[in-house]
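Input set for joint prediction.
Command: fold jointly, output tokens.
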Amino acid sequence: MDPAAKIGPVLELLEQQYPKVYVTLDFSNPLELLVATVLSAQCTDVRVNQVTPALFKKYPTAAHYAQAPVAELEQAIYTTGFFRQKAKSIQGLCRALVKDYVGQVPSSLEELVKLPGVGRKTANVILGNAFGIPGIVVDTHCGRVAQRLGLTKEKDPVKIEFDLMGLAPKERWTRFSLQMIWHGRAICTAKNPQCSRCPLLPYCDYGQQAMGAVAPK
Ligand code: SF4
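tokens >
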């Protein structure tokens, strides 16, 4: 089935399966989400959420991170893993925010991806969830589910993002990618996709092959 033909039913089924989706990192402003997103690399969101309440209280602005002794910042984020690299990234980011954006997180993709260490994935997390500007976040889950469904043949996350942008209506981009991420965590897991209980099975290339199911006309 052609990706353009299946995207409608896929969007509808995802909406039914995951009507209330949200980013699972706790935050109350764009800076907090940016910092939490950096911390979430190679770490669970649950663990990040355990660390961030004290962190956000101690460093309420970009200037606080920019001026912090790095050892102190490392100590504050230690349990999220890769703490030296993450402390360096957060400090570099916040110094750029102070220098170029009076300490505020910019609200355009073009500006966000110019910040040190910020790629399109992080930029789209911030745009969609802190600013309400549509963006498709292609993380490992979203990319895997898109490939299995047959919505893309690409492997590169940026190319997958562009394929999905061409298929889904813009106003659905943020919700769609969150729903794909949730689906990848809950059902379409990397090692053990549960195709037999997946509502997307009739529209999924991988699932139909795995289950010997029949695709809708
Ligand atoms: Fe993933 Fe299987 Fe569902 Fe396809 S049918 S989206 S492979 S769980």
